[in-house]
Amino acid sequence: MTLHAMRRAALVLPILVLLAGCETDSDVLARVGSRTITRGDFAMVARVLSNRYPGPPDSAKVHLLRDMADRELLVQGAIQEGVHRDTTFLDFRRKTEEQMLRQAFYDELGAANVAVSAGEIEEMHRRRAQESQVQIVFTLSEPAAQAAASQIRSGADFGDVADRFNPAGFTPPRGDIGYVQPGMLQLPVDDVIRLAPVGKVVGPVEAVGQGWFLVLVKDRRKAEPKTLAAESDLLSTILRQRKQREVLVKALDRLRGDYRVHLEPGAAQSLIRYVVPPSLQGAEPPPLTLRESAEPLASYEGGTYTMGDAVDDLRSTGQRPNFNVMPSVERWIEMRTLERAALIEARRRQLGDEPDMQRALRERMNDYLLEGYVTHHILAQSEVTDAEARAVFERIGMHPDRLQSAKFLVVVLRDSATASQLAATAPQTEGLREAVTTAALGVVVRPVTVTFPSDNPMWAALEPALMASAPGAYTPATPVAGLWVVAQLISKSIVPQSYESLPNEMRTMLVNQAREEKRSQLLAALSDSLKRTIPVRMYPERLKRVPWPAPSAPSFTVPG
C-alpha cells in the first residue's frame, strides 16, 4: 500500500460507513477481520470516487477494492491498540455525539429542509433595485433601547446616542452602516429599513435572538443594478438562511418554555467577576473550587447550568460573550442552557437510535481514530535526515548544470528607462562599450570575472541571466538596490550541480520526496504487521459481476 493509495483510501470510509444491512456470502468482496466489504458498499463508493481511479475498469475496480480494504485495516489497527478507550477519544466522542444530537433535533424541526421559490428570489431581486443610507442604535435589552429612544426624542443627536448605547465592536462609529440593500440584514430590521420614511426614527424594534434596534434612514437611492442570474444563488442563500433562523428562533423559544429555562439572579455578574479581573492582568482565571464550580447560573427542567459548566464551555467551544456588556453574558448563559435542554429533548425523541445518526457518528469516530493512528505510526516517524535527501539526489541523477564562473562587461545606470533602452539597442552595435559611447551615457563599462555562487548582490542578481545567455549576448536591464545593470557575456564555465550547491528550493523538493518515500515504507511495514494479526481476504474475481460507473460526459455550449 503506497501513501498515495492511503490518501485515496481516506476518501472511502466516510461513504462505506453509511452502508449497512445483511448480505449473502456471494455479495462479500473482501473481509478485513470481522468487517466485510460488500457489493453494495463497493457500488456506492465507486459511484462517488470512480473518477479518481483512471484506467481500464477491471484494474480500476481492483485498485478501489484494495484501498477500501487497506483503510479498514488501519482503522482496526487503531482499535486493536485500544485508542478507542483513551480518555481523549472518549471525550471527543461524547462532545461529537452531543453536537450531532443537537443538530439532529434542530434538523427535525425543519430547519434543514426549508425551500425557496423562484418567485421569492425574483421579489427580493426587485427590492434590491434601491438602497438606503442607514444609522442604527443597537441594544441587548428593551429598557436600554427605550432610554436611547427617549434621548433622541428629547433632541439628542442620533449618532451621539448610538455611540453611547451601541456595544463596542458591534457597529461602526455613530451607528452609521452606510448604504445597504434589502437582504443584507436580518428580519425584521431589513424590512424596517426598506419601508421607513426618510429622516424619521423608527423603533425600538425587536430582532428576536439578537436585541433591539432604533433605525434612521437618512437617504434612499437607486442601487447599481445586477442581473437576476448573477444574484440568484446569493439571494437563494439569504432567503434560506432567514427561514432557517426563523424556524430555530421559534423552536428555541418553545424549548425555553417547555423546559422552564430560568437565569439565576446575578449569574452574569458572577461569571464576569471570575473571568474579567484576571484577564485585565493578562492572566488566566484561577481553578474553581468545588463550591464555586457548583454555583448555579441557570436552571432547566432536568438539570442546572453551573459555573463549572460555563468555564468548560468557554474553554472548549470558542464561543465567548462580550464581557463588557452584561446582557451579552446573560444571553450567552441562556444559550448554553438551551443547548443542554435541546440535548435532553433529542434523547427523549431517541434521535441517537436512528441508523443514519449512528453511522454518521461511527464515521466521525473512525476518522478521528485513523488520524491519530497514522500520525503516531507514520507521520511522526518520517523526519528526513540530510543523508536521506542526498541519497535521493544521487539516485535520481538530478545533477542540473550550474554557472561556475563568467567573464562579462557590465555597466551600472540609475534610470530604468535608459537601462532598458541600452539593453534593446546594444545588440545593434559592436559591443557594450560602443553602445554606451553611441548613446553618450558618460558611464564606465567595466570588465568583470566572477565565480558563482557569489555573495555580491549585483552578481547574484545577474546569475540567472548570464546562465541563460550565450557568449556575446546581453542581459536584460536588471534592478539591484535601486540601480540598473546591463551586462554583455564574454565567456562562461558551466559544471554539473553538486548537492552542496543546490538552491534551497531544490533541497526542499528532495527532502519532500525523501519524506514521501519514507512514509510509504512505514505504511507498507505497518500494513504488513497488521495483516499478521488481522486477516484480510479479498475476492477480486467477484468484481466481474460488479458494474463500474461510466465516466460522465463533458458538457458543451454551442455558440450561437
Question: Helix fraction?
Answer: 40-55%
* CATH level-two architecture of the domain at 129-225: Roll
Give the CATH level 1 class of the domain at 129-225.
Alpha Beta
Mean pLDDT: 86
Q: Determine the N-to-C terminus distance.
A: 51 Å
Low-confidence blocks of residues: 10-23, 553-560
Summarize the biggest pleated sheet.
4 strands, antiparallel
Q: How many extended strands?
A: 14
User: Roughly how many Å is the radius of gyration?
Assistant: 35 Å
Question: Which key features would you list for this structure?
Answer:
560 residues; alpha+beta; Chitinase A, domain 3; four-stranded antiparallel sheet; 20 helices; disordered C terminus
Characterization of the model:
The chain is of the alpha+beta class. Among the domains are: 3-90 and 539-545, no CATH class; 129-225, Roll (Chitinase A, domain 3), CATH 3.10.50.40; 401-496, Roll (Chitinase A, domain 3), CATH 3.10.50. The chain is built from 20 helices and 14 strands. It has helices at 3-9, 13-16, 39-49, 57-80, 87-108, 118-127, 142-153, 158-165, 189-195, 228-258, 267-280, 290-293, 307-316, 326-348, 355-377, 386-396, 416-425, 432-438, 457-468, 504-531; strands spanning 28-32, 35-38, 130-139, 176-180, 201-207, 211-222, 262-263, 296-300, 303-306, 401-413, 446-451, 478-480, 483-496, 536-538. The strands form four sheets. The chain has a four-stranded antiparallel β-sheet with strand order 4-3-6-5, with helices on both faces. The protein has a four-stranded antiparallel β-sheet with strand order 11-10-13-12. β5 (201-207) and β6 (211-222) form a beta hairpin. It starts with a helix and ends in a 22-residue tail after the last strand. Residues 10-23 and 553-560 have low confidence and may be disordered.
